[in-house]
Amino acid sequence: MAQDAFDFRSWIRDQPQRGFEADLSDDDHFVLQTDWAIAQINFYAMDPDPEVVEFNIEEKRSGEVRFFLHFHAVERDHAVQLYHEMTDTLVQLRDQQSTEVLLCCTAGMTTSFFADRLNQVAEAMGLDYTFSAVSVNEVYENGQNKAAVLIAPQISYQADRVRAALGNVPVLAIPTAIFAAYDAGGCVEWLREELRQRAQTAEERAIEQATQGFDSDKRIVVVAVHAATKEVNLHYRLVDHGNVEQERKVIKRWLTLDDITDVIDTQVCICKGGGTVDAIGIALPGSLHNGRLDLKTRNVKLTDGTDDFVLADYLRERYAAPVVLCNNVNAAALGWYASQDEYENVTFYSQATGWAVGGQGHVVSGKLVEGAHGNAGEVKYVVDRFSYSHPLHYNPYDPSDVIEMVGQMIAMDCATLDPEVVVLRCDLLQNMDEVAAELEKYVPRELQPKLVKVHDYNECILRGMLIDCIQKLF
């Protein structure tokens, strides 16, 4: 084992086990767990470099990863801070709500009885699932943000309509044999397998499409950062000669500069076995001015604390490699544009749930528009200047409030750029016809851009960041 700055293993063994049980018998693989989740601490030798420590928390009920990162445990204070963040997340998962699944049939009667039996079976199996039922007319309002919506066989012909309205919520038709026999156990097993396969298929498809169309002979690390409602997501990808060599996601309650460098450090170590990294691309929220990041994003702090900190210079000096920084929505616009060949003028609009202000990226005549000061697409400068129906009560979690703001922002785009298509990333807004109706208050329907809903925001960012690196550096 390479000598670390301090003995992290021994330090972990000395910590009190508060709210979880620990198995520390394997020197390279520690396990911490509660009734709800399991955390793994893995140590990987990277001789002659310091070993890599990996933290991973997975929910038992769903198999969903809720915390993931890896780093060099060289600096004691940094490693200790990350350990406490990880254990805090592990314990706090107890407070998370159960996985909610909604059933629907014509009137909700037969599925209500079935839902009761499913709840009994889930409890007996030790699964933290909650099943409820509504009529098909109520599913559009109540199906939002559910883990899945299950359609009874007698109305399975409506599944496509429900699926279109609910966007990224899995909508599944219950097999007739299972429903007719009221086989609750079989239904639970079928549902778990369907959700597992869907998650696996989505991941495989993303990796397959990640570098489709690229023939670069370079080895590039691309990183995508964006904040969600209750966490910060950092996705990264190591691309070598057009192939995805590594792809992972870091999930944390807050993100620091050390988290960015931890990711890049480990990827540079991987590269040392077969060459060096040729470029690093990082997509970030905020405006970028000559390598400086104007960042006012909650739960994200990417600075060393000094007033004159220049992120780009810091990273170039640390890694002795070219570094490209890009606003994350600009990268998404470039990535979406490159994934199709129909449109030359594209606006990408990201409006995260719970955020009062979103961001935009613009591709005009096939070129990304960043502006003289990197402020193109920063709608924060104008969003408060418009008049709204309820300006004192704007609720970023209310779809009706959000759609009003989005409609006005797209109207501004029509007046300034007249894009062919607006690609919208907004979980609260699933029906593009509603957005078009709001936009029609300002722009005639025949003059409106095509409105497209996008679900895989991270894939757009990562693909766009890779393109940005290749275009600017090679």
Query: Radius of gyration from the CA trace?
Result: 24 Å
* Low-pLDDT runs: none
* Number of E-state strands: 23
N-to-C span: 38 Å
Described by the principal axes of the CA atoms, the overall outline is: globular
What structural class should be given to the helix and strand makeup?
alpha/beta
CATH superfamily of the largest domain: ATPase, nucleotide binding domain
* SS field, number of helical segments: 13
Q: Order of strands side by side in the largest beta sheet?
A: 1-2-3-4-5
Chain-averaged pLDDT? 85
- Supply the CATH architecture of the largest domain: 2-Layer Sandwich
The first-level CATH class name of the largest domain: Alpha Beta
Share of residues in helices: 25-40%
Largest sheet: 5 strands, antiparallel
CATH topology of the largest domain: Nucleotidyltransferase, domain 5
How many domains, in number, for the residues?
4
Share in β-strands: 25-35%
